[in-house]
Design goal:
The structure is a single chain. This protein has 231 residues and is mainly α. It has one domain. The protein is 55% helix and 5% strand. The protein contains nine helices and two strands; from the N terminus they run αββαααααααα. The protein has a two-stranded antiparallel sheet. Strand 1 and strand 2 form a beta hairpin. The protein starts with a helix and ends in a 13-residue tail after the last helix.
Length: 231
């Protein structure tokens, strides 16, 4: 799995360090002017809360499938999240370099850093975990892994990696489409539940996902009483 793990880390650990984001005070005092008088107004910014439906499984096999998918998703999501953060930082850094030779040199330094420090851990991913990671990279960056490699390296390298990955039933061109693919919907459900119970740190997807539309499509059917279970 060296090819897929190396690719993942190429995005996720592309920058050594980045500045901490500026935190905004959610209780900042604003003023409303009424007939010349300043009226203080304290605004409190509230996070959006998504109401998640109960999960129903048609049978034991469906429940086991969900549990396995949850374990794999929770394992690889942090890499995809980091990919989105580091990719943005990498692009900003490359924009500051004017000469092509400087950009190439910088990329080589990052490549060496990744190979020495981080690729070993991601080599432990199974092929199914690798495919989930590819999907989640698309969710968090808005681009497929193939597109990212093509942009950051070369079209030929992206083509070669994709062909190699296909031998292990992994496509670097896979997109995350929960409204069209049931497994992607289940992954999105797993993420939303993990965000709410703070098992994972929330990061918005790079594109809009209508979760309730997915629920209406994939979560309508109710199982028989004898085989119902909740999670």
């Amino acid at each position: 799995m060296k090819y897929i793990t190396y690719i993942a880390m190429f995005f996720s650990m592309a920058i050594f360090a980045q500045e901490d984001p500026v935190k905004q005070d959610s209780t900042a005092v604003h003023y409303m002017i009424i007939e010349g008088d300043s009226i203080p107004i304290t605004s409190v910014e509230l996070d959006e809360v998504m109401v998640l439906p109960n999960l129903y499984f048609a049978d034991r096999n469906a429940r086991v499938r969900y549990i396995i998918l949850r374990r794999k998703t929770l394992k690889v999501y942090p890499y995809a999240k980091l990919a989105a953060e580091r990719l943005e930082a990498l692009q900003k850094r490359l924009e500051t370099l004017e000469r092509k030779s400087d950009k190439k040199k910088y990329s080589k330094v990052i490549q060496k850093y990744i190979e020495d420090e981080f690729s070993a851990e991601l080599k432990k991913l199974t092929k199914t975990e690798g495919q989930i990671l590819v999907k989640l990279i698309h969710r968090q960056t808005g681009k497929t892994t193939f597109e990212l490699i093509k942009e950051l390296r070369s079209g030929w390298r992206a083509f070669w990696f994709n062909n190699t990955a296909s031998l292990f039933d992994i496509s670097l061109k896979k997109e995350f489409v929960p409204l069209e693919v049931e497994e992607d919907y289940l992954i999105e459900d797993i993420l939303q539940r993990a965000f709410q119970n703070e098992r994972l740190e929330r990061q918005k997807s790079a594109f809009k996902i209508d979760f309730y539309a997915c629920v209406n499509k994939w979560g309508k059917s109710k199982p028989k009483t004898t085989s119902k279970s909740k999670s």
